[in-house]
Amino acid sequence: MSPISAAPAVAVRRLVRRYGERTVIDGLDLTIQRGEFVALLGESGCGKTTLLRALAGLDPIDGGSVDAPGRPAVVFQEHRLLPWGSLWRNVSLGQPEEGARTRAAEALAEVGLGDRLDDWPRNLSGGQAQRVALARALVQEPELLLLDEPFAALDALTRLRMHQLVKELIARHRPGVLLVTHDVDEALALADRILLMRDGAIAHEIRLSDEVSIQAARADLLAQLGVLPADRRQSSPASLSQTPA
Ligand SMILES: Nc1ncnc2c1ncn2[C@@H]1O[C@H](COP(=O)(O)OP(=O)(O)OP(=O)(O)O)[C@@H](O)[C@H]1O
C-alpha cells in the first residue's frame, strides 16, 4: 500500500569495476526508484556502458553491491533481434510458452506493430526494429529497464517519435529506467533526474521538477560538461560530441 516501503528498482552501493589495472567505476552509489526515469550523461569512455552492464548483471563487479529485485531488461543501440525469428517469437524469447503469442501481440500493439506479429526483422526500418526491442523488454515486466543509447542510430524525427512512445510506455508500466545517452536534449526531454558521470562516480545530479526550467537545467549541464563558453550556451545545439570552442 505505502509507496515508501516499496524496494527501489535498483540500489548500487560503492560499486567498483576494473579492467585489468584500470579502475573504471570507483565507489559509485546510485538508487533508482520504480517509476523513476534517470538519464546518465558523461564524456565518451567515462564508464556509462560499463555501469549499465554491471546493473544488468552482464559483467562481474570488483567491489560493492548491486541490488535489484528482479531481472533487468536491456535495450541496446542495435536492436539485436534474431533474424530467423518472427516478430512475435523475438518478443517472446525467454518467456513461458503458454500465452506467449497473446502477450507478444499485446506488447507489439503497444509499440504500434500489432499487425506485424508474423513478419520478419529484415522487413523493419531501424525505428520499427527498436520498437520491437522495446516490446521485447516490456513483455518481461521489468522492475528496472536499462536503455543504452537506444535511439542514437535513428534519424531525428524517428528519435522524437520514439521519445514520445517511450514516455507513454514508461508511464504505463512504471519500471525504474536508466538511460545512457550522449544527447543532453534527449536527457532533458525524458528524465526525472539527470546524472553526470566523471572519474568513475556520479559527479553531478539535476532533478527536473516544475521549479527547474529546462533552459536552466540545460545551461547547468553544458557548463558541467564544459561543452561551450557561457555566452554561447543558450543558442547552441546540445551534443556531447562537440568540443570546446
Ligand atoms: N571489455 C573491456 N576491456 C577493457 N577495457 C574496457 C572494456 N570495456 C570498456 N573498457 C574501457 O573502459 C572505459 C569505459 O568504457 P565504457 O564503454 O563504459 O564508456 P562509455 O562512457 O560508455 O563510452 P561511450 O560514451 O563512448 O560509449 C573505456 O576507457 C573503455 O576503453
Keywords:
6-stranded mixed beta sheet; 9 strands; 7 helices; globular; 3-stranded antiparallel beta sheet; disordered N terminus; 245 residues; 31% helix; alpha/beta; Rossmann fold; binds adenosine-5'-triphosphate
Would you summarize the structure shown here?
The chain is of the alpha/beta class and about 240 residues long. It is built from 7 helices and 9 strands. A hairpin with a 2-residue loop joins strand 1 (about 10-20) and strand 2.
What does this structure look like?
It is a single chain. The chain is α/β, with parallel strands linked by helices. It has a domain at 3-72 and 142-232: Rossmann fold (3-Layer(aba) Sandwich). The chain is 31% helix and 23% strand. The protein is built from seven helices and nine strands; from the N terminus they run E-E-E-H-E-E-H-H-H-E-H-E-H-E-E-H. It has helices at residues 48-56, 87-92, 100-110, 126-138, 156-173, 184-190, 214-225, and strands at residues 10-19, 22-32, 37-41, 63-67, 73-75, 144-148, 176-180, 193-198, 201-207. The strands form two sheets. A six-stranded mixed beta sheet has the order 5-6-7-3-8-9, with helices on both faces. Strands 2-1-4 form a three-stranded antiparallel beta sheet, covered by helices on one side. Helix 3 (100-110) crosses helix 4. The radius of gyration is 18 Å and the shape is globular. The termini are far apart. Bound molecules: adenosine-5'-triphosphate. Adenosine-5'-triphosphate binds next to helix 1.
